[in-house]
UniProtKB/TrEMBL annotation:
The keyword Hydrolase applies. It catalyses: L-kynurenine + H2O = anthranilate + L-alanine + H(+); 3-hydroxy-L-kynurenine + H2O = 3-hydroxyanthranilate + L-alanine + H(+). GO terms for cellular component: cytoplasm. This is Kynureninase. Its EC number is 3.7.1.3. It comes from Halobaculum saliterrae. The gene is kynU. Residues 1-25 are annotated as: Disordered. Catalyzes the cleavage of L-kynurenine (L-Kyn) and L-3-hydroxykynurenine (L-3OHKyn) into anthranilic acid (AA) and 3-hydroxyanthranilic acid (3-OHAA), respectively. The keyword Hydrolase applies. Residues 13-25 have a biased composition (Basic and acidic residues). One of its GO terms (biological process) is L-tryptophan catabolic process to kynurenine. It comes from the Archaea.
Amino acid sequence: MSDTNAGTGHALADARERDAADPLGEYREHFSVPDGERYMDGNSLGLASDTALATLERVVDEWRELAIRGWEAADPDWFHYGEHLGDLLAPLVGARESEVVVANSTTVNIHTLIGTFLDTLPGTPAGPDPSADPPAVLVNDLDFPTDHYAIRAQFRQRGIDPDEALVAVESRDGRTIEEADIEAALRERDDVGIVFMPSVLYRSGQLLDIDRITAAAHEHGALAGFDCAHSVGAVDHALGDAGADDEGADFAVWCSYKYLNAGPGATAGLYVHERHHGTTPALAGWWGNDKSTQFEMRHTYEGADTAGAWQIGTVPMLSSAPIEGAAELVREAGIERVREKSLALTDYLINLVDDRLGDDFSVGTPREHARRGGHVAIEHPEGYRVSEALRDRGVVVDFRPPNVVRVCPAPLYTRYEDVWRVIETIEEIVESDVHLEYDPRGGGVT
C-alpha cells in the first residue's frame, strides 16, 4: 500500500463502494455493534465478538460440569492456559511461542519486567555490582502515566531516586517523539540500562520504530522494552527479530481489551526474548514455577524456562477465556491484512478531516504509514465539548487532554460508511455550535 493518500471526495457512495470491496467486511458480522451508534473507541475497549463470548461460555460450562477437574480435563486444560494463549498471540507479535504468555495486568507486567531487568544491572542491590552507580531507565514525556508510576516504584524499592534515574526524552511538538532524540539521549547518558518506550503513543497515535530503538539500545549496551498496549492486534509486529542486529527486543507488555477485543479487564500479555529465559522474575509467584514441579509445593522457586516464568498468580480463567476466541478472529483475518485495512481506514479518515472540517481542526497523528498506529488524533480547541456532543449523537469516541478527540476505526468491525458518518456528524455539530452548549471538561471517564 502506498503512503500517498488518495482523495476521498465527499460522496457517501464512495464509502459504500469501499465497503463493498472490503476483503475483511464479513468480520463485522462477528461483533455486537451497538444499535444506532458509530463505535470509534476500539483503542480503549474493543467490541464483543461471538467467538470471544463462545470461548468464555465454554469455560463457564467447564466450570459448571468439571469443577476442579477443569485444571486437567478441560480442552484446552486450564493449568497450561496462559501458555496456550501465548501460543495463539505469538504470531501476532512476531515471536516464538515460548516467548509469549498471557498473564497478570499490563501495569503488573511492567512492574515485574522492569524490576527483573533492573536486578540484572550493576548499581542495584541484586545486580552484579551493587556498589556501582545506579542505572537509568529511558522513557519519554508523552508516555501513558502508568508506565512511569510502575518504573518509579521499582526504583524506590531498590533505594534509587526516581527523579535521578527516570530519564524522559522530550517531545519537540507535544505530539510525537523522534527516534533521533532517543538516540541522542543514549549518547548523552551512559548510565541508561533500559530503554522502555511505547509502540504507539496513546494520545497522538504515533507508531515508533521498534527496530531502530532496539538497535540503538543494544548498541548502547542497554535493554529494549516496549509497551505495546496500543498496537497489538492492529499492527504486525516482529518483536522476536527486531533491530538491525537481529537480536530482537528484550521484552514487551500489552493489554488484551483494545484491538484484541477480549473484554474489559481481560488478562494482559507479555513477551520475553528467549535469551533471557531462566532469569528470576522480580515478582515471582507460584504460577510461574516450572509446571512439572509446581505441585510438589517446594518453598524454593523454580521458574519455568519460558516467558511463562513471569506469570505470578493463578490464571484468571474467566478474564482470559475471551482472548482465545478473539485471537482466533485476528489470526484468521491475518494480522497483515488487519494492518492494511487499519491504514486504509485511517487514510480515509484523515482525508475527510482535511477536506470537510474547518481550520479549527487538525490531525495530530503522523500521516506516514510507518509512523501511524490504529487511531487518529483529531485536534480542536474545544475537543472535550466536541467529544461530548458526538457521544450524545451516537458517535462513541474518547477525549485526551488538552485538545484531542481520539477516533479509532477498528479494522475488524468498522466500515468506511461509519467513518464518513462520523465526519458528517462533526460537521453538523460545529456548524450549529451545539458543542458550546456543553460544560467544559469535568471529571470521570473520557
